[in-house]
Amino acid sequence: MSEKSNMTGHLAAAVTIFIWGTTFISTKVLLVSFTPLEILFFRFFIGYAALWIAAPRLLHTGDRKAELLFAAAGLCGVTLYFLMENFALTLTQAANVSIIISVAPFFTSLFDWLFMKGEKPGRRFLTGFAAAMLGISLLSFQKDTGVQLSPKGDFLALAAAITWAAYSILTKKIGSYGYGTIESTRRTFFYGLLFMVPALFFLPFRIAPARFMLMQNALNILFLGFGASALCFVTWNFAVRALGSVKTSVYIYAVPVITVITSLIFLHEVITWQSVCGIVLTLAGLMISESRFPLKQSSRKPSVDIGMDRP
User: Fold this and answer.
1) What region holds the EamA domain (predicted)?
2) Fewer CB within 10 Å: N-end or C-end of the chain?
3) How far apart are the C-alpha atoms of 140 and 274, rounded to whole Å?
């Protein structure tokens, strides 16, 4: 691999993680004018349109099992995950949600072992998992003048992380079919939007074009649609091909740090010492757990799945 390709891969990973780390802030800002469902629908509708522009080619699967996998991936990774994440942001701080969502790799490892006959988690995994759960508890159950006790929002974020893990396993299976990355992502977005339709009749949803005339709303929804939902899946997969899945996945640990910093700057959220301890424990646990199989993972063929490592 050339040095230039290596540098480009690192740049792609860094850009992806920076964007994903700030999406919690954009969503929090949009929640002032939009409901969680409205943000979700408009965001992925824009992303779906963008992917059609980027690759105006039909994806012919001709396989019922593949279509069921795409449907399940859309349900888990788009509809359920982002609905729970967006509702969590209405109940707790953006920094908390970002940290808790980062435990998704733990559950991905568990599901890979239970359902895909992957490596059995060992002591390092369990130690890291325990540290991360303790960190999440410190984040969730704290009382002071600046932060409200909000376990419901934090537990909802944890449920979103579990759902993302299921999505990761599904996309791993989809990756074995060898479809194009953009086309596969677009098909997943399609099913995600399709499963949102029933919710449009039960949860608050309206078009209200006047809201999009506000520059703050327009810029944030376009950022989520074009940047976080369309562009980042492509740049992340490019980084995986250039660097390998192990090196690229290390970047995911920067997401909570970016979210904490940006939430301090733009949302003026209060970060207590208990929050800092929770962040450190969660990130330490993640790194301990994810370093359990370094040699075996590096020998595998790099994955080009649809954003497997991100929440």
Assistant:
1) 8-140, 152-288
2) N
3) 10
